[in-house]
Specification:
By secondary structure, the chain is mainly beta. It has one domain: Fumarylacetoacetate hydrolase, domain 2, CATH 3.90.850.10. It binds zinc ion (ZN). Zinc ion binds next to loops.
Length: 285
């Protein structure tokens, strides 16, 4: 099942993508894709609905972030051995974790805003994991029972803010629009193996990232178990699991985003995102 949210910013409704690629309105069945609606029981109820019985979403509707009520947006750093190498870092002995602020979350095709003064805005295609059942001290063997679904994440990153401005990485990770989520929340039954998915990212048609989740160092069940030792996980939390090589910082010479460029990115079975890059001065409101 591919679930989504559609409509203007802040007024999104829940929806479903049917087998013909038509967007269907789920709002008669659930309020939103958040909290308890992400439990296995509620998702199983949604799976029993005949999509043809649901109204079609009007053509041209904006797609919003594929989950609402995100309490934590947790990221794993340097989790692909080949990406660690391109940044000159060692694969860490334990997962590196950092935050994206939830105010960074946006729709998969919304504009990405280069912050004021930024010279080093960069891209990272990543597999996102959406928690459906909370817990703490989760056993690795049972970790996948806590997953509501997977999605594409662009972990947009400002490298100067991340690495040259003192302290943790968070300054460069949580700027507005640095967290496109979606287009779909894809339930685990549609993904045979989350550790064997092709993933790619292009800027203006040039393919910079062309990797696979099969080079992920710390895999999804371990990450869920690991994180739950340090915090309780809750429905709607998003874990972004790291990026393969090909980020702008890893190019020689380094390459960063400029206003007017377009990013396209995708992961096998999870759909595609496309973002226009704009200056902060061009943002609406
Ligand atoms: Zn990342």
């Amino acid at each position: 099942m591919k679930l989504l949210r559609f409509g203007p910013v802040g007024q999104e409704k829940p929806g479903m993508l049917d087998a013909n690629g038509t967007l269907r309105d789920l709002s008669a069945h659930i309020d939103d894709l958040r909290g308890e609606a992400l439990s296995q029981e509620r998702l199983a109820e949604l799976a029993r609905i005949d999509p043809a019985s649901l109204p079609e979403v009007p053509a041209g509707a904006r797609i919003g972030p594929c989950v609402a009520g995100v309490g934590k947006f947790i990221c794993i750093g340097l989790n692909y051995s080949d990406h660690a190498a391109e940044t000159g870092a060692e694969v860490p002995a334990e997962p590196v974790i950092f935050n994206k602020w939830t105010s960074a979350i946006c729709g998969p095709n919304d504009d990405v805003i280069i912050p004021r003064g930024s010279q080093k805005t960069d891209w990272e295609v990543e597999l996102g994991v959406i928690i459906g059942k909370g817990g703490r001290y989760i056993d690795e063997s049972n970790a996948m029972a806590h997953v509501a679904g997977f999605c594409v994440v662009n972990d947009v990153s400002e490298r100067e803010y991340q690495l040259e401005r003192c302290g943790s990485w968070d300054k460069g990770k949580g700027c507005d629009t640095f967290g496109p989520l979606g287009p779909w929340l894809v339930t685990p039954d549609e993904i045979d193996d989350p550790h064997s998915l092709g993933m790619w990212l292009e800027v203006d048609g040039k393919r910079y990232q062309d990797g696979s989740t099969d080079t992920m160092v710390y895999q999804v069940p371990f990450l869920i178990s690991y994180l739950s030792r340090f915090m309780s996980l809750q429905p709607g939390d998003v874990i972004s699991t790291g990026t393969p090589p090909g980020v702008g910082m890893g190019q020689k010479p380094q390459v960063y985003l400029k206003p007017g460029q377009r990013m396209r990115l995708g992961i096998d079975g999870l759909g595609e995102q496309e973002q226009r890059v704009i200056n902060d001065e061009e943002r609406e409101r």
